[in-house]
Amino acid sequence: MHRLLREDNHKHKFDCSKSVTKSTDFSCSSQCEIPVVPPVSCTEKLTGNYRCSGSERQREKVNPDCSKSWVFDQSCAYGCNAATAACVSQPAQTCEVKFLDSYRCSGNDRQREKQLSDCSKQWSTLETCPYGCVKVWASPTLPVSCNLPPGGDGGYDGGYGGCVPAVSCASLGCGKTDSCGTFCGACPAPAPCVPAASCAALGCGKTDSCGTFCGACAAPIPAPVPAPVITPSPPSPIAIVVVSTVGPANPLQSVALKFPLQPLFMRSVSFTDSDCVSPGESALLAVKVRNTGKATLKDVSFTATVPEIGVRARSGPVAITTSDKLTRFLRLDVPNDAREGTYYLGVTVTNTKFSRTVYRVFTVDSGC
Hints:
Order of helices and strands: EEEEEEEEEEEEEEEEEEEEEEEE
Strand content: 35-45%
Oligomer: single chain
CATH topology of the domain at 264-364: Immunoglobulin-like
Distance between the termini: 111 Å
Shape: elongated
Mean pLDDT: 74
CATH class of the domain at 264-364: Mainly Beta
Low-confidence stretches: 1-30, 151-167, 232-247, 255-259
Structural class: mainly beta
Helix content: under 10%
């Protein structure tokens, strides 16, 4: 057995005269030379160590020669945390809480889509329609509305939610548009203006084709009014009491009309802000009523409609006690594609025993 001292990277030689600190025992031939000692080898593998390099996460690797190196492990879209050697998570997303311009019917509920703070969306119920919910127009992108009650404000609308196509434009006339937006065509040009040669040919109270008025007719001389014959009769909704003498100067001065008391008095119908609304915006309508009858009014409903542009709002039913004053607010949502112009807004207050309808002007204008 001999001692070997490493001399270079290629061979080992005996040195029997020197002592060495680090040596390896080998059996040598007479020349005292042996091949190079076999190099140290390792199994190539990945360790559990990680580090950040810019926006990349790297993993430690053991190489076959037992050296170590860092290799690509993952690309971090939102950065790499050097302290934990982990990719940064996507930041939380926030959105404005608001209603969107999407509507639908869900059973009898009229719903509108709402955007939440986490940017998710959900459907919120605006109102429950006791007679069913239907589309106002034949398009899923336009608002929906409640069906009208049977026997009130026109009865059932045939499932059009306020839009009832005209069977024939002859019932509307030229230059008109039905509630579904169908235009019935322009009217023909008027006949040429031909002035009348003499108003005697037309008569008093007439106007010729050029707009010339022929003058008012003379008032007729009233005939003497005979004394009335009063005959008992059963009560009627309108009582007419006639008190007269023979040959009065004006026979109508002695006639008095009495009308039955209405159970509901509509005090006012007004907008809280303005009666001019831009397309896509909303207006708030205040309807003030009073029970002037002697009994409580039950199941009173309030409805506001502009059929030409698909606007409809409903509130109720409610009960109104005797002499009670009540104010109901109806929100009118004007569609984004509503045509600009001036419309008549119909406001109906109804229950099973009465129905009252009033109208007021309603303007749609983008300059409001």
